[in-house]
Write a structure and sequence with these properties.
Layout (H helix, E strand, L loop, with lengths): L39 H4 L14 E4 L4 E6 L7 E7 L2 E2 L3 E4 L5 E2 L7 E6 L5 E9 L2 E16 L6 H4 L30 H8 L11 E4 L5 E4 L5 E5 L7 E8 L4 E8 L4 H4 L5 E3 L2 H10 L12 E9 L2 E16 L3 E9 L16 E8 L6 E4 L18 E6 L5 E6 L9 E5 L7 E3 L10 E2 L5 E3 L24 E3 L5 E2 L11 E6 L5 E6 L11 E7 L4 E9 L17 E6 L5 E9 L20 E8 L6 E3 L1 H4 L42 E6 L7 E8 L31 E8 L13 E2 L8 E8 L20 E4 L5 E4 L26 E3 L2 E3 L5
Parallel strand pairs: 2-9, 9-14, 11-17
Antiparallel strand pairs: 1-3, 3-4, 3-7, 5-8, 6-7, 8-9, 10-12, 12-15, 13-14, 13-16, 16-17, 18-19, 18-41, 19-20, 21-22, 22-23, 23-24, 25-26, 26-27, 27-28, 29-30, 30-31, 31-32, 33-34, 34-35, 35-36, 37-38, 38-39, 39-40, 42-43, 44-45
Length: 826
């Protein structure tokens, strides 16, 4: 099999096509019609002739499913269609439903030719319409790609080609995910033969994938993941990667030799990214409709060659959600290189900082959002901590950020409000200190219910929290934040970790009234009237400390916190602490929930029906089912390895018997449904394959060199898909993936994935939830822009604005949080 490098292009042709609000799940044809909808004047109330081969009336030939194989980057072969009316050629209007797969001239014409884009495979439905009659035909495109070695002329792959060791630890790492990039072509015939026909025993060699995880659900539009593996040889000469969909809509084979940078680092070949352009094609294809109606999954295999012998293939199967995760993730970074504002230096004497960073969808690295350099001393290091900005919350529609500063009284109690729509995120210093850390904000940030629990045991930011008597208050934000009246919640309530539902109809919190100095309380939910700013109907959905396994509550003594709503208000996700910071289950001398010093937690969910029921999110945490062994890699440095007290530089407790399944914290949820799933962002100290595998608790910058990738902390952000409408007592979660583009050297936590401030009509967009008026439609030049209403249609596309499900063009969509949401894959 001779492999030649193919030049891939991920740019769609611009001749008036729409790709269903950019999510690749449907799309307009060359006439710019949303979801392939034919203008009403052509449809009338009739139509509906669906390929029965009739000779009378409107007919289109060929009638059968047309299957074509298309080489990536090419626009052939084409498929011609002819329209007749009562057997005579007739000028019909032509549209299709997947403008990202191909195009067809709109006519009117008696012929229409489907032209593939060469960037996406899958099933296309073509519609011909005339005089109130419609006929549909289908084309199935099989996209084929292969390459031998990195293609540096391709913009996607050029970012996966580091030229100096220093680049490996910059920003989000190579390609936003780390590693050493893609390798050159494989030219040795013996090595090529070994990859194509492996004869080595992969099992005996211990060949196993460390990351990603089998059965992961990926969204579209993400950066390509870093494949990481382990085996006895711990090095390779070359690898072979294949990607194939279940239906054959996409097929790829890629060979790569040792990345060039390894000659400078002297490191082993134990990881490789998937080429970014290939990943884009694969994920834009997988998850789409197939001729049989089956889910089009994506399978990856890896084969390794060493010393002329091939081992493998080993592989995994993934689902792809047909939707783009847009918006921005805002997160805390400790030990960041983006700003210098800590008086404490790192373990190697470098000045570091703490700030809030942001990752916009598609970015290769984060950007500084809130935080600034502090004044420097005579040594050039920060002289105080005044530039530090951490302990933040973000309104789910991306308008406001509340954050704390390392100054004020009580200690660390000074709060700032940032307007993300203003130049330089204009800051307002909040006059009342000790009040606003981790407040729960309405989706637009206009109102807030304050939190009564300190952000950590070392950050007493809440007035009276250490005395146990802190209480919550209610505020209206704006040019001058003003206190409001807290109506409908119990008098003197202390709401811990409060959060609003994305539609503002509910609020959830941990009730720690009278005991804010030792957090053990139930999760309560109350209704909220956004028009009157009043609460009502408070009920406890999860009791604390009762250990009722039958009712699905955590064991006695385990803290619960950070409740967050799914976008459809059907359930809450929350953190359950299974071991406190002293290393003893059910106890914690630090009084609040922590992410450090031995604290171990799982993420759970609880349904909000008449009889709420809770259980762990097993797949997210790292198990296939209850009682199963962890599928997370067992590595040195205490990741799944039984290590006694004293062998860990940050250990004063015994890690024997613990693994990475209890290193998950602080969940937040994207406020909209994308591709049929909800999406949770969480903090974890799990190993990131063999790229980040340091001791789980090593994240305090004075303990290590924050500029060394070899010592980089594993405290990072992860993302997982959550099924909607899952029955109580089941696990709705899926294995998680590492959040691309986060700063690879720093300790990252508390990520909020929120919508960006909305765009006005005419601004470019990829989905309706980015637009102030709720619609993202095809423009005359073929792009997608925000608008007031669907173009040439009376219904809303997926991720466009809706009031009820009846507003959605796709009858399988739900209307969730004001937007048409794709149904979960079957």
């Amino acid at each position: 099999m001779g492999l030649g490098t193919v030049v891939f292009s991920a740019t769609l042709a611009a001749c008036g096509s729409s790709s269903s609000n950019g999510n690749g799940n449907g799309g307009g044809g060359d006439g710019g019609l949303q979801d392939g909808t034919v203008p009403p004047n052509l449809l009338d109330d009739g139509g509906g002739l669906f390929g029965d081969g009739q000779t009378g009336g409107l007919n289109v030939t060929p009638t059968s499913l047309q299957t074509i194989s298309v080489a990536a980057g090419t626009s052939t072969p084409t498929v011609p269609f002819s329209a007749t009316l009562d057997g005579t050629p007739a000028a019909a209007a032509w549209t299709l439903d997947r403008g990202d797969i191909g195009g067809i001239a709109t006519g009117p014409s008696s012929t229409g030719t489907f032209v593939p884009r060469g960037t996406t495979g899958g099933l296309v439905t073509i519609t011909a319409a005339l005089n109130g009659q419609t006929v549909t035909r289908q084309v199935f495109v099989k996209l084929l790609a292969q390459q031998n070695g990195i293609n540096t002329s391709n913009p996607g792959e050029s970012g996966q080609n580091p030229t100096s060791p220093g680049q490996l630890g910059q920003g989000g790492g190579v390609g936003g995910v780390g590693g050493e990039g893609l390798g050159p072509p494989v030219t040795d015939p013996g090595t090529v033969s070994a990859l194509q026909d492996p004869g080595g025993d992969a099992s005996a060699a211990g060949l196993a994938l460390l990351y990603p995880y089998d059965k992961t659900v990926w969204p579209r539009g993400m950066l390509a993941p870093l494949l990481m593996w382990s085996w006895a040889t711990n090095d390779a000469d070359a690898i072979l990667i294949t990607l194939r969909t279940t239906s054959g809509s996409f097929s790829y084979t890629g060979m790569f030799g040792r990345p060039a940078i390894l000659s400078q680092t002297n490191g082993p070949y134990i990881r490789s990214p998937i080429p970014q352009d290939v990943w884009t094609m694969a994920t834009n294809t997988a998850g789409g409709t197939t001729p049989t109606g089956a889910v089009d999954q994506l399978t990856m295999t890896l084969t390794i060659a060493r010393s002329g012998v091939g081992y493998g293939p080993i592989g995994e199967t993934w689902n792809v959600a047909p939707g783009l995760l847009t918006g921005t993730v805002y997160y805390n970074s400790y030990g960041t290189q983006y700003v210098k504002n800590w008086t404490a230096l790192d373990g190697a004497g470098h000045s570091v900082g703490a700030a809030i960073l942001g990752i916009h969808s598609g970015d290769l690295a984060p950007h500084l959002v809130v935080g600034q350099n502090s004044p420097v001393n005579s040594s050039g290091n920060p002289s105080d901590d005044t530039g530090c900005r951490v302990c933040h919350v973000v309104s789910s529609h991306g308008r406001f950020v509340i954050t704390q500063s390392e100054q004020g009284s009580p200690t660390d109690g000074l709060s700032f409000l940032y307007d993300l729509t203003a130049p330089d995120a204009g800051a307002t210093q909040l006059a009342v200190q000790g009040t606003f850390a981790w407040a729960g904000m309405t989706n637009d940030g206009a109102y807030a219910l304050t939190n009564a629990i300190d952000p950590s045991s070392t950050n007493p930011a809440i007035t009276n929290s250490l005395a146990g008597s802190a209480t919550s208050s209610f505020w209206q934000f704006g040019a001058t934040p003003t206190p409001g009246t807290l109506t409908g919640l119990p008098g003197g309530v202390a709401a811990g970790y409060p959060s609003y539902a994305p539609d503002n109809q509910f609020v959830a919190y941990v009730d720690v009234t009278g005991s804010t100095n030792d957090v053990h309380g139930p999760i309560d939910v109350a209704s909220y009237n956004a028009a009157t700013q009043q609460f009502s109907g408070v009920r406890t959905v999860l009791s604390a400390d009762d250990g009722d396994a039958a009712a699905g509550t955590p064991p006695t003594g385990e803290r619960i916190g950070y409740p967050v709503f799914l976008p459809d208000d059907s359930a809450l996700l929350f953190e359950n602490e299974v071991r406190g910071a002293d290393g003893v289950a059910g106890s914690n001398p630090q009084t609040v929930m922590e992410t450090r010093d031995g604290t171990r937690s799982e993420l759970w969910w609880v349904t909000l029906g008449a009889t709420p029921k809770a259980q762990p999110l097993y797949a997210l945490n790292g198990k296939t089912t209850a009682g199963a062994a962890s599928y997370l890699p067992s590595l040195t440095n205490n990741h799944g390895i039984a290590v006694a007290v004293g062998t860990d530089p940050r250990d004063t407790y015994d890690e024997t018997g613990w693994d990475d399944t209890t290193l998950n914290y602080e969940p937040t949820v994207l406020p909209v449904v994308v591709g049929g799933y909800a999406w949770v962002v969480f903090t974890s100290r799990r190993a990131y394959g063999n790229q980040l595998d340091e001791v789980p608790w090593l994240s305090w910058p004075p303990n290590y060199d924050t500029t060394s990738l070899a010592q980089a902390t594993v405290k990072k952000l992860w993302v997982a898909a959550i099924d909607l409408n899952a029955p109580p007592g089941t696990d709705p979660s899926h294995p998680a993936f590492y959040l691309p583009a986060q700063e690879i050297l720093a300790g990252n936590s508390r990520g909020f994935w929120v919508l960006d401030p909305c765009e006005q009509n005419g601004a470019s967009c990829s989905s309706g939830d980015q637009c102030c008026n709720g619609f993202c439609e095809a423009s005359e030049d073929g792009g997608l822009v925000c608008s007031n209403a669907p173009v040439n249609a009376t219904c809303s596309g997926t991720q466009d604005k809706c009031t009820t499900a009846a507003d959605c063009c796709d009858t399988t969509n739900q209307c969730i949080n004001g937007f048409c949401a794709a149904a979960p894959p079957k």
